[in-house]
Amino acid sequence: xxxLIRGGTVATAAGIFPADxxxxxxxxxxxxxxxxxxxxxxxxxxxxxxxxxxxxVHTHLDMPLGEIVTADDFESGTVAAAHGGTxxxxxxxxxxxxxxxxxxxxxxxxxxxxxxxxxxxxxxxVTDLPPARLVEMDVLVAEGVTTFKLFMAYPGRLMVDDATIxxxxxxxxxxxxxxxxxxxxxxxxxxxxxxxxxxxxxxPRWHAATRPAAAEAEAVHRSIALAELAGAPVYxxxxxxxxxxxxxxxxxxxxxxxxxxxxxxxxxxxxxRYDAPGFEGAKYVxxxxxxxxxxxxxxxxxxAAGELQVVATDHCPFRMRDQKSLGRGDFSRIPGGAPGIxxxxxxxxxxxxxxxxxxxxxxxxxxxxxPARIFxxxxxxxxxxxxxxxxLVVWDLDREHTWSAATHHMRxxxxxxxxxxxxxxxxxVLSRGSPVVEGGRFVxxxxxxxxxxxxxxxx
Length: 459
Ligand code: URP
Ligand code: ZN
Ligand code: ZN
Description:
binds zinc ion; single chain; Urease, subunit C, domain 1
């Protein structure tokens, strides 16, 4: 099947230019002016922008947390992603302590199989990595699961010690893997939480008060030091505050190999949300927490300047009705995380590009091209070039949309951006040449998404 997207303005990380895009089957065949080729399917993109499909490298679909599980599975989550202009997700498989790493990955493969509507890959959350298990990291890298997340927070559940972090970094230095770090000082936070609860401070706002920015910055600093000791690069997930950015910027300034990701919630929402009446603040209980508004400008500057490389979502949805509500009377029992897989691209187009904080090219870079490069998907994904997968989004950048739980496609009963009006709507979303969303309607097929075997680091 030949498909032509005619008359649009193509935006890539390298430039913006008028061009047609010709697709042969699943891949892009040509990009250029006046491609009058015979095509079975023609989309008129006049007045619209043609961008690479978004790549969200931080999602938690169908993820158990104690007795509950995140509200989106691989079907509802990837359908929502597609509605928002995202055509690739990289989700986190979780190793239960003692479990072989490969077994954890295979569990998540089964969760996605037959359900995912767009292409997907996996990172592995490692909770237990004795020296004898290190070889399992090599096996997974060879299978295309090249990235390993370690937690410096959540003692007794996910947190690993510095020796484990160092071991993982050393191994990744040699096998082409990359360690992703949840950087918060879990020991200090546990102490602060214990004290707050003992003083009767149980409301959602105490979640933020007990996870200070200094606890994040300290862990970022330590991550970088351990990575330098191990001779490995490190990628810091969900950077939330100016203090953490300063650590990353200083380290990069002296040549350290550290990469940083932030998320829309840290760019658009701030700590006052925890003061919402009643239990409403639980909607924003996530780790790290929302921060004071002034620090957001530092995050934006870091994104614009390349001190941070990626905007992902940390999509980790829990319903208010029967999931977040488990933490009424004890903020430490509120399941942490918020939905965002659908809202990322339009929020960033509106509040980033339209607001003049980042260029459209930089938008493409941080939402698609850099994630593809860092996570071993380039040049198959994240670019508009001959030979690349035809994962494309035709955006109407003039059309308005109001975010609301009543109309979003995420299977969760609230939207953190409820009532927020954005300009920028994906009119047409193609996954490997096939329409998945057209005119706001899902026209794809759950199960059509394929597992992406990602390449190891080549640096
Ligand atoms: O609170 C959050 N962010 N939950 C998701 C898990 C994580 O740490 O990324
Ligand atoms: Zn995390
Ligand atoms: Zn996460």
